[in-house]
Amino acid sequence: MTRAISLHDVSKAYTRGTRVVDRLSLDIAPGEFLVLLGPSGCGKSTVLRMIAGLEDIDEGRLFLDGEYGNDLPPSDRDMAMVFQNFALYPSMTGRDNIGFPLRIEAPGTDPAPRVDATARMLGIEDLLDRFPAQLSGGERQRVAMGRAIARHPSAFLMDEPLSNLDAKLRNHLRAEISQLTRELGVTTVYVTHDQSEAMSLGDRVAVLRGGVLQQVGSPRTVYALPENVFVAAFIGTPRINLLRGLVRAPLDGAMTISLGKQFLRLPEPLSLDHQLLRVQQGREVIVGLRSEAVRIAKPAAARTGEVALTGLVEHLEFQGHEVLVHFDTGSRPALVPELEAPRPAPGRPARRRRREGGTVLERLRERAGALRAGPVATAEAPGRPDPDPGPATATAEPRLPGDLIVRTTPDIRLRHGMQVPLLVDLAHLFVFDQHGRRICPSPDRLPDLEE
Ligand SMILES: Nc1ncnc2c1ncn2[C@@H]1O[C@H](COP(=O)(O)OP(=O)(O)O)[C@@H](O)[C@H]1O
Ligand SMILES: [Mg+2]
To answer: Which domain of life is it from (predicted)?
Structure first.
């Protein structure tokens, strides 16, 4: 009824030399809801299609319930796919769309009882006699789900099934999918580029970047203990604040992380995690502060573990129940290239290097771009005009002003240009090394986060 899916060092290249999936290993338990999450083009659909048997596996092995499955034809895998574009037969009614695969699988058997039972389960009985053109987007996707469910497959493979729907419907169907797949207890691999969808649906989330698995874990774990700066930046809204910092650990004084014009003074006695930062003395690091790690309050209000900063209000984003305040704290933001622009443009790093000599971070960024792997962040001074705006300046999301975004309640009165006291909770401090790997909280610490 439900099955285990395992990928062992699976790779795929469409053109020679460029792996779009690179040595991916993943064990999906029977009945588990696993989400494959990553930006567009990172290989999610390719992974799903390899599991379905629609795409050959170049290297590595696929196991279905422990049995070698690389060469199994798709029809023998007993899996049902649901796609983004609904993929219904336009000339068939809802009933026939749902019943069609059943007729193919078991010719001569009347599909009606299963079609009716599925329609009842999905609450789409009244849609069965309509044609796809007579259905709304959400209704079509329900029929498509019905077609997948009616087959009683051993696994569901869903490729961005909600992407074409409006936000309200998406939330609604998200809850339905979650409930249905759990009721049915069928292993589900769900592909999305939407982190909030991944977090709300998955038992576990597997984060992919450039065909390389970055981390797999429960939503809580990937949020609270991201293994690298890419995962940290990809998961969570508003996006984690990433600032370039410099660790200073004098033998005879307090340890600090300098953030350009200000610094974070690590409270004494140093926590174990902060002690481990000592080896970074004199090195550049990336400081990660989620919006909940910073609050607007005077230094006198500091609780244990909180240290003071100040920020200049640059921009206010009113969201109704809260306000996102963009502060300039005089620090330099670290950028995660893939998350700033659709693709790191070739050519630009070379121009930068000539002009500026090239920092370690920039060189690393180039190297990682070449490898399509290895997490790396980079940094740019905010607001610095680029005299030679190449294609790389066409960013997906225009960069917002300020280097630190803080959430606050709408009743706090703030104006553009105000200097505001901030408190940073160092219990929520992330530090990543120059390669983007998390070094604080220490990777060796094993807090009991998994359910
Ligand atoms: N049939 C194909 N032929 C050549 N390249 C492909 C093909 N399908 C996908 N690709 C490329 O492989 C990479 C991964 O694609 P895909 O798995 O569709 O990513 P995602 O689903 O994460 O957006 C992309 O760079 C894409 O352009
Ligand atoms: Mg895709």
So the answer is: Bacteria
Q: Within this chain, do residues 18 and 107 fall inside the same structural domain, yes or no?
A: yes
Kindly report the number of other CB atoms within 10 A of residue 156's CB atom.
25
Rounded Cα distance between 5 and 26, Å, is 8
Provide the CA 137 distance to its chain's centre, in angstroms: 25
Ligand 1 atom with the shortest distance to the CA of 43? 17
- 171-200, pLDDT tens digit by residue? 888 888 998 899 889 999 999 999 999 999
Among residues 206, 226, 246, which one ends one of the domains? 226
Tens of pLDDT, residues 368-386: 443 443 444 554 433 333 3
Nearest-atom number in ligand 1 for the CA of 159 is: 21
Residue 359, domain member (yes or no): no
CB 337 within 8 Å of CB 369: yes
Q: Is the pLDDT of residue 137 over 80?
A: yes
Alpha-carbon span 140 to 277, nearest angstrom? 53
SS3 call for 117: helix
Q: Examine the domain organization and report whether 251 and 336 are in the same domain.
A: yes
Helix (H, G, I), strand (E, B) or coil at 142: helix
Range(s) of the domain holding residue 18: 5-226
Give the closest residue (by CA) to ligand 1 atom 16: 43
Mutate to test the pocket of ligand 1, among 12, 16, 18, 20 (most ligand atoms within 8 A of CB): 20
Q: What separation in Å is there between the alpha carbon of 347 and the centre of ligand 1?
A: 23
Residues 127 and 197 in one domain: yes
Ligand number nearest to the C-alpha of 15 = 1
Q: Are residues 26 and 70 in the same domain?
A: yes
State the pTM of this model: 0.84
Ligand 1 pocket, residue 44 CB under 6 Å: yes
Q: Is residue 436 part of a domain?
A: yes
Cβ neighbours of residue 411 closer than 8 Å, sequence gap 6 or more: none
Residues 163 and 222 in one domain: yes
